[in-house]
Amino acid sequence: MQGEFGEIEHYLFYRGLGHFDIPVETRFDAAGQLVLANREPAHVPFVFVYDKRSDHDVRVAWLGNLAGGEEKVVSLYQPVRGLEAAEPEIRATFQQALTAQGLFPDEAAAMLETWWHSYFMKDGLRVFWIVPRSFTEQVLPLQIDPAPSELVRVMVGRSEVLTPAFERSLAGPGKDTANLLYQDRFWPAYQARAKALSRP
User: Fold this and answer.
1) 50-68: per-residue pLDDT in tens?
2) What is the chain's mean pLDDT, rounded?
3) What is the pLDDT of residue 175?
4) End-to-end C-alpha distance for the chain, whole angstroms
5) How much of the chain is helix, strand and coil, in % rounded to 5?
6) pLDDT value of position 1
7) CA 131, CA 41: separation in Å to the nearest integer?
8) Among 22, 27, 71, 93, which is 20 to 30 Å from 37 by CA?
9) 3-state DSSP call for residue 185?
């Protein structure tokens, strides 16, 4: 794509906010295991369950794909490693999944780099998933004039998952925990969840 100043870009990368039902649902069952559910008929080609602990250890609890309508139970009791040791494998695995969907290798690497500090170095349990192309076209229709000879669109979803233990801490966190949560950018969402949990 050529801009008004003559620059040529091979790809466009953008992110934003939206309000719509997402195809991948996360929840915990009665045994405390994470359940992933694909609520769409379309296949989700890549799912990556990542857990970063406050002691700097990480674990990739599960990675794979979800068929249309499939549910997958994920055990979080996986071996943990230091982030520094795990980083090369995490980057390589995720980049390979993105390029398999048609992205250029440098584009996939750039996407991962923009996420690394916020999503992989930050404590918490999160699920990344590549959105089915049909769903992307439905919620984010795109028209380009003149039409390109080839168009590849890859959207990645991210679900921040609150574990049962974390939700219990929201019900009555101590001073140190409260101060830590207040500095988190998801503090308003934590407040809303704590309020919902306190309802009779």
Assistant:
1) 999 877 899 998 999 999 9
2) 85
3) 45
4) 56
5) 35, 25, 40
6) 47
7) 12
8) 93
9) coil
- Report the C-alpha gap between 5 and 1 in whole angstroms: 11
Judge whether 58 and 50 are in contact, CB under 8 Å: yes
Helices (H), the chain: 83-100, 105-115, 133-139, 164-171, 175-182, 187-198
DSSP assignment letter at 132: P
Q: How far apart are CA 64 and CA 48, in angstroms?
A: 7
Q: Mean pLDDT throughout 122-134? A: 93
Could you check whether the bond before residue 146 is cis, i.e. omega within 30 degrees of 0?
A: yes
Report CA Rg, the chain. Answer: 19
Pair 54, 123: CB distance under 8 Å: yes
Q: How many Cα atoms sit within 13 Å of 117 on the Cβ side?
A: 2
Burial classification of residue 119, based on how many CB atoms lie within 10 Å of its CB (0-12 exposed, 13-18 middle, 19 or more buried): middle
Q: Are 72 and 39 in contact (CB under 8 A)?
A: no
